[in-house]
Amino acid sequence: MVLPFKERLQAINPEFETFESLQTLQVNLGNLCNLHCSHCHVDASSSGAEIMGAEVMEQITLFLACHPTLTLDITGGCPEMNPNFRKFIERTGGLTPHRLLRSNLAIMAEPGWKWLPEFCRSHELTIIGSLPCYLEENVDHQRGDGVYQKSIQVLKRLNSLGYGSEVELNLVYNPGGDFVSGKQAELEVAYKEELSARHGIVFNHLFTITNAPIGRFREHLEADGTYTEYLRLLAGRFNPETAGNIMCRTLISVDWLGKVYNCDFNQALMMPVMADDGSEIFISELDERDIRGKKILLSQHCYCCTAGEGSSCTGALVG
Ligand code: SF4
Ligand code: SF4
Most buried one in 146, 151, 156, 235, CB count within 10 A? Predict the structure, then answer.
C-alpha cells in the first residue's frame, strides 16, 4: 500500500499543504493538438474540442492587468492552435514581465504555422519546447514518426532568430516510460553536448519533468499492469527536500472555461479549487486573498512532483 501523499507532506510540515502566494498564472488554451504523445496527461489530440474562447482570454487579461508581477505560463494541448492565440499574445503584451509559451515545437514546422517562430520572437515570448530526448528514435517513439526532425528544424530556426542567446529557449525532458529522471544538471550537459555536436543547436536550460500517472499515461500503465508499481516507485523516491517547493504553492492553473485549479494535473483530473461555500472558482472572480493559506487538493498523483529531485513545470525542485 502507498501511504496517502497528503499524510506524507503533512508529516514534514503542515504548511506545505497550503497555497503560499501567487507567482505564476498558468493558462491552458485547450486540448487541441497536432500530436498524440503516449505520455500526454491531458489526452490532447487533433480532435480536442475544449478550446478557450475570447471571453475567458479577456478575463485573464483583466486579471493580469490587476496583478502586474505575475508570470504568464501558456500551455495546452498545443496552445498555438487556439484560434485566438495571436490576439491573446497581443493583448497580454506589457501586462506581465514574463510570458512562457509551452510548445511541442513540431507545430512550428507544419504548413500554415511557419509564422510562429518570428511571431514569438517579436513578442519576446520565452519558449519552453518539448524534446523528450536528443535521440531521434526515442522522440519518435514517444511523439510519433517525423516529430524529431521537425523539432530540430524548428530549433535551428529559433536559434537563427536569437532564441537560446538573446531570448530564452528552454527544453523539456520527460522519461520515455515509467521511471524517474536522472539528475537535471547532468542531463542538461548531455543535451547541450549532443544537440550542439549533432545539429549546432543551443538552448538555455533543460527542465526534467516526471510523467504524471494520469490521463493517457495512466491508461498505458494500466494496460501494462504497472500502474501500482509506478506509484510505488514514485512514493519510494519521495524526497522531503522537495516538499516545500511543490509548484502548487505559488501557481494557479486556469482551464478553457476559466475555472481555477491548483495545477495542470489537477485540471486534467477535474479537481478544481473550491471556495469555502463549496462552489467552483473562476478567474473572473478570483481574489488571491481568498486562496492564500487555502489547502491544496492533493492525491496520489502528487508523488510525481516529489520523486528524486522533484518535478514542476519549470523542472527539478532541488538541484
Ligand atoms: S504531450 Fe503535449 S504535444 Fe503531446 S499530445 Fe499532449 S499536449 Fe500534445
Ligand atoms: S500534482 Fe499538482 S497539486 Fe499535486 S503536488 Fe504536484 S503540483 Fe501540487
Answer: 151
